[in-house]
Structures are given as structure tokens and as C-alpha cells.
């Protein structure tokens, strides 16, 4: 669907991106993860075709349609949300006879029924963000690009956003940027780690439901897990288990309790991803030194 190969980009003599390469496939959600200034927004603008790299190649599938939501929603303050969406239909090239249907579909998808007659300037930041996401979905794009999409959303809206992306991923590829590990870990199949304009590594999140990491209060022996189908030793008192079905995680916990193994805590996917992220950052810093 989309391939970036050895992308370099600079502005005013400053190198913003250096040797960025990755691929995105239909049905996958990829996260760009990094601290502020890592190059996430610049990378997304190149993916969207809004910026052109100094060097490197961007290959898009023939006829690829793109929906793009920048970090600051480009709303027209005096227009109602509904008028803005109808105007976006024109910008996306939708035939006029399909405007009403497209607007009704995204209003339902993004839960905008209570605000569609309100002026954009009067909307909360969270509702402005949802409206911006809705306009990007009007033409049912093949590729959805989201820059810090959960900014300004409250917990209920974040949950709705996650559910929306899970529904959309079957029909498109999705790439979004965030500096919030929880969002990346909860939604993405993989994360691309950017640091100071460089692609320094990837984090595989595709097996989140099959991984269980248990931290024990004291070291335990591999022999204690002889009857379990799969396990491997982690760091110190941590052990990671791989299961075929998420429900099997409960069976592993029951097994540990029956064996009276002293469980200290369960380590979540966010902790695992954060550890990998920090290791990549530290490795890059050591390499630069």
C-alpha cells in the first residue's frame, strides 16, 4: 500500500529527517512514536504528499486515496459542523448526489449528531478533533493519516476513537503519530520509533493478546513451568508466557497460584513497549556519544 525508502528532508539548512524507511499494509495500524520534535508530523506530511523529500522514494499503491487529519484541525470557525462536512465532500471530489449520504455516515461513525448544527468555533477541542477525523473519512479512504488524533479527547471519546479505528482497519491502512505510549500499545500492530529525525527501531505489538508477562516476588525455576506449553525466562524475576488464545492467560495465572508461585505484578503491554522504546532511545544516545 505504501513504502517509504531512505527518506531525507531538511528545511532552512536543518536536517529534519534522515534515512526514514518503512512499509504500511492494508488492515494494519502503524504508530509513529517519539518525543516532541522527533519528526513525526514531518513524516506524516511526506506520507500525505504535502511535503516532498530531498532524497528517497515514496511509493503509493496506484489510485490510493488518502484521508488526512493534521494536529491542528483546519476548521472554518463561523461554519456549522454540517456545512464544513459538506464543503469537505467537495474538496474530496465526491459527486454532489453522494454528499448527504457521506455526511450522515461520518456523523454516525464519529458521534457528531449533537454538534452538527453548531458553529465550529463553539465546539470543544475534543469535538473539533472528532469533526476533523470525520472529514477525513467522507470519501472512505484507503489510507488514513492521523497526527496526534487523541489530543483533546476525553476518556469516553478516546475509547470511541479506539473502537472506530478497529472497525476501519479492515478496509484501510492507518498510520498515526503519538507520544503517548498507552495509545500506541492499545491500537497499533507495530510502532516506528523516531528520534531526532531518525528511524531508530520498531516495536512489534501484533501479539499483544498472546503475551503475558508476570513479575514474581522472588526468582522461580524453569522447572516450575514444566507443564505449561510455552514460556521463556525474562529479566531477573520476570517471565514471559505466550498463549494461543487470550483466555489462556487466566489458565497460566491459575497454574501459578496452584503452584504457590509468588506473583508480584502483571506487566502490561504498555510497560513492555515503553521498555523497548527507552532501550532504543538509550542505545541511540550511546551510539551518538
Notes on the protein architecture:
With 289 residues, the protein is an alpha/beta fold. The protein folds into 2 domains: 2-204, P-loop containing nucleotide triphosphate hydrolases (Rossmann fold), CATH 3.40.50; 212-267. Helices cover 33% and strands 27% of the residues. It contains 8 helices and 13 strands. The strands form 3 sheets. Strands 5-6-7-3-8-9 form a 6-stranded mixed sheet, sandwiched between helices. A hairpin with a 4-residue loop joins strand 11 and strand 12. Helix 2 packs across helix 3 (99-109), helix 2 (81-91) packs parallel to helix 4 and helix 3 (99-109) crosses helix 4 (125-137).
Describe this structure in a few short sentences.
It contains 8 helices and 13 strands. It has helices at 40-48, 81-91, 99-109, 125-137, 155-168, 181-187, 248-258, 269-288; strands at 2-11, 14-24, 29-33, 55-60, 66-69, 143-147, 173-178, 190-195, 198-204, 211-216, 232-233, 238-242, 263-267. Helix 2 (81-91) packs parallel to helix 4, helix 3 (99-109) packs across helix 4 (125-137) and helix 6 (181-187) packs across helix 8.
